[in-house]
Amino acid sequence: MLDLENKQLNFAVFGDIHGRIALMYTLAVLWQQHSKIKLDGLLQVGDMGAFPDSSKLDKATKKHAEKDADELGFQKFYIETPESEFYLQHKDSPCTYFVRGNHEDFDYLGNFIKPSSIDPWRKIWFIPDNQTMNVGDEYQPVKVAGFGGIAPGAEKHSRGKFAREQYRKSQKTGKLGPRFFSVTSIENISTDLYNADILMTHAGPICPELINGSMLIEELVKYVKPRVHLFGHHHQIVDRRNNLNGSLSIGLEHLEFDNESKLKYGFWGILSISPAPLSFDFMSPDIFPLLNLISRHNYRSLLTK
Ligand SMILES: [Zn+2]
């Protein structure tokens, strides 16, 4: 945890990127050059698109990849390639920390039991469910807790106390697909996550701003009591600030180009974390004018060594 003597740490936070690692790094490095502020890391809330092997793609990813090869970007980053070397060995490249989403190769990610780097330069780190990692500054780190995946579909049909109990029982015994998290995993959450500075989940909590959010994630947040909760998945921007304790709850959009090949709003922002206050600003052309000039067609030519 940071104490009052400590400096501010700055993180660029990204919603679901679905393989667009080169674009994520381009944006982060260009923003650093523009703002003259060094980023202490990139935080990515799942749906990284961690599919090292094309034969293991899920249905949706396969469909998207036929139209946009960037969906398969992970394949150029988990091994040494000219692309991974260019972006990850770039002098201004921060480390990335990510959790699992619901579109990943779960057999592959299941190989990582502890927080682990997935690339030859140890720049991109996966934080498995129920794990924490100290990031940002070697001597003054912040603790990031990870809990990826999405809520089991049955959660939505289990309003009311009785239905909820029935659902809990069935989830405990029933088998879930790998994209989901279970009631059991939330009930057995490690005490190590308690009071983490940052909680990263893929799904968001049920709340007035996110009626499709998860009850279980809401319970997790109540237990962990993070200073900042970051999530993605829902294609919905949430920016909730708790005035009582200064904590933040931030939901991000997906990193995507619109029909005019321009970047959408709400998929990234800058989190500044220090003893007090915390701040999160969604990125916009007002604070980063270059954004207006970045398109699907030119982003690969914007970064120089
Ligand atoms: Zn998702």
List keywords for this structure.
six-stranded mixed β-sheet; binds zinc ion; 305 residues
Please report the first level of CATH classification, the CATH class: Alpha Beta
Largest sheet: 7 strands, mixed
Instruction: Examine the secondary-structure arrangement and name the CATH architecture.
Output: 4-Layer Sandwich
Give the proportion of residues in helices: 10-25%
Radius of gyration, taken over Cα atoms and rounded to an integer in Å? 19 Å
* End-to-end Cα distance: 35 Å
Within the CATH hierarchy, at the fold level, what is the topology?
Purple Acid Phosphatase, chain A, domain 2
* Strands, total number: 13
Strand order of the largest sheet: 4-5-3-2-1-12-13
Number of domains: 1
Summed over residues and divided by their number, the pLDDT gives a mean of 91
Q: Tell me the series of helices and strands, N- to C-terminal.
A: EHEHHEHEEEEHHEHEEEEE
Low-confidence stretches: none
Write the CATH homologous superfamily. Answer: Metallo-dependent phosphatases
Tell me what the structure shows.
It is a single chain. With 305 residues, this protein is α/β, with parallel strands linked by helices. The chain has seven helices and 13 strands. The mean pLDDT is 91. Strand 8 (198-201), helix 7 (215-224) and strand 9 form a beta-alpha-beta unit. The protein is globular. A seven-stranded mixed beta sheet has the order 4-5-3-2-1-12-13, with no helix packed on it. It has a six-stranded mixed beta sheet with strand order 6-7-8-9-11-10, with helices on one face. The chain has helices spanning 21-35, 59-67, 82-88, 106-109, 161-173, 183-187, 215-224; strands at residues 9-14, 41-44, 96-98, 116-117, 124-126, 131-135, 142-147, 198-201, 228-231, 238-241, 248-251, 268-273, 279-282. It has a single domain, classed as 4-Layer Sandwich (Purple Acid Phosphatase, chain A, domain 2). Residues 16, 47, 101-103, 202, 233 line the site of zinc ion.
